[in-house]
Amino acid sequence: MRIDVHSHLVFLDYLQYLAGRSSLPQGVLEGGTYFVSCAGGYQHASPLGHADVDAKLRSMEELGIGLSVLSHGMPGPELLGGEDADAWASRINDHLASVVAQYPGKFAAWATLGWGSAERTIAEIDRCVNQLGFPGVYLFSNINQKTLDDAAFRPVFKHVARLGVPMNMHPTAPLNMNGIDQRPLVPGMAFMFDTSLATIRLVMSGLFEEAPDLKLIVPHTGGFVPYIRGRVERMIDAWTPPAEWPPLSQPAHDYFDKIYVDTVAHSPEALAYCYERYGPEKLLYGTDHPFAHFNEYNVMVDHLACTGAERELINRGNAERLLGIRLQ
Questions:
Q1: 212 to each of 30, 85, 208, 255, how far by Cα in Å?
Q2: Neighbour-count burial of 31, counting CB atoms closer than 10 A to its CB (0-12 exposed, 13-18 middle, 19+ buried)
Q3: Domain coordinates of the chain in residue numbers?
Q4: 280 touches 260 (CB < 8 A)
Q5: Euclidean distance between the first and final Cα of the chain, in Å?
Q6: Could you read off the pLDDT of 206-230 as tens digits, one per residue?
Q7: Among candidate residues 161, 165, 110, 180, the one with its CA nearest the CA of residue 138
Q8: Residue 49: how many CB atoms within 10 A of its CB?
Q9: What is the pLDDT of residues 183-193, one digit of tens each?
Q10: d(C-alpha 156, C-alpha 142), whole Å
Q11: What is the pLDDT, as a whole number, of residue 180?
Q12: 287 and 63 in contact (C-beta within 8 Å)?
């Protein structure tokens, strides 16, 4: 049986709230799907079926998944800003906790963060980890159009590192939509670019220098990072950071080696390269359920040229170790 670290379950109350807004982010319900307009002109679709727990359980049974770690996914409450963002993050977490409690042993959940203030975000992380039993936190590749290396977010990341729980990054409406005027370019390319940019900027900013125990998961086999890191590592090693960022005491290669990736690849060749680049200990099984093609990702892992013991690490062992959860 597998542990799925990349599985979405939307909170319909939140989508209904967005449908009643007159400013971004705002949504509309059409034909059984919520269409939410986010920053930069990107519109995200959330079918009502993405809130169906029973459908998810059926898919888990078919795919041999014993436990799914749920996240609300896009659009995140941080887009609201201020107290509204923090309040809706708490409500989303309460909803996820109720699903976990209703189906013992089938689900865990990533903590949704509002980022309205660092203090309230830290308090919500503590509540989710210490009271609700969530195994880690969820963040997006930019926070309401701010890069993740913004100084305002640093205390939160350091707190997560001190707690010893992993941080799972997911793409959101990209920072730059210039030239990305057709839908295939956004989820097909810009999402991957945004997570890659966020990951590289976090390395450059010295976050892993200041918080060496931070555990970061980058989805979709790490975006573009595995393929460009050789080039960007050389550039970082020859670069002098600005005054606000600490100098790096190790080669950039060492920081990139800390990163975990999930197996939501879009070709078996991409998954095979990540396996060779990072090794089986850094790969975590994921499906991106309920979005399309999740069965293909399952097949890719099944056919990956690795040992049986390594496949067991990818399917469940790494998640059990990193998240501190166990299949029942």
A1: 46, 29, 5, 9
A2: exposed
A3: 2-9+52-323
A4: no
A5: 10
A6: 999 999 999 999 999 999 999 999 9
A7: 110
A8: 12
A9: 889 999 999 99
A10: 14
A11: 87
A12: yes
Q: What tokens does 101 get?
A: 């409690």
CATH fold for domain 2-9+52-323: TIM Barrel (3.20.20)
Q: What pLDDT score does 94 carry?
A: 98
How many C-beta atoms lie closer than 10 Å to residue 134's C-beta? 25
Distance CA 264, CA 296 (A): 9
- Segments in the chain below pLDDT 70: none
Cα separation, 119 vs 303, whole angstroms: 45
Region of 115 please: left (phi>0), alpha (psi -120 to 50) or beta. Answer: left
Check: CB of residue 182 under 8 Å from CB of residue 217.
no
Question: What pLDDT, on the 0 to 100 scale, is given for residue 13?
Answer: 97
Smallest Cα–Cα separation from 83: which of 52, 119, 114, 60? 114
Would you state the structure tokens that stand for residue 110, as one six-digit string? Answer: 């990533």
Asked if residue 155 has a cis previous peptide bond (ω within 30° of 0), the answer is no
Q: How many helical (H) and strand (E) elements, i.e. helices and strands, does the chain have?
A: 15, 11
What order of strands is seen across the sheet that includes strand 283-284? 2-8, 65-71, 107-111, 136-140, 167-170, 216-218, 260-262, 283-284
Question: Can you tell me the distance from the alpha carbon of 315 to that of 124, in angstroms, rounded to the nearest whole number?
Answer: 29
The structure tokens listed for 244 are 């606000």
Gap between the Cα atoms of 201 and 216, Å rounded: 13
Q: What is the pLDDT of residue 221?
A: 95
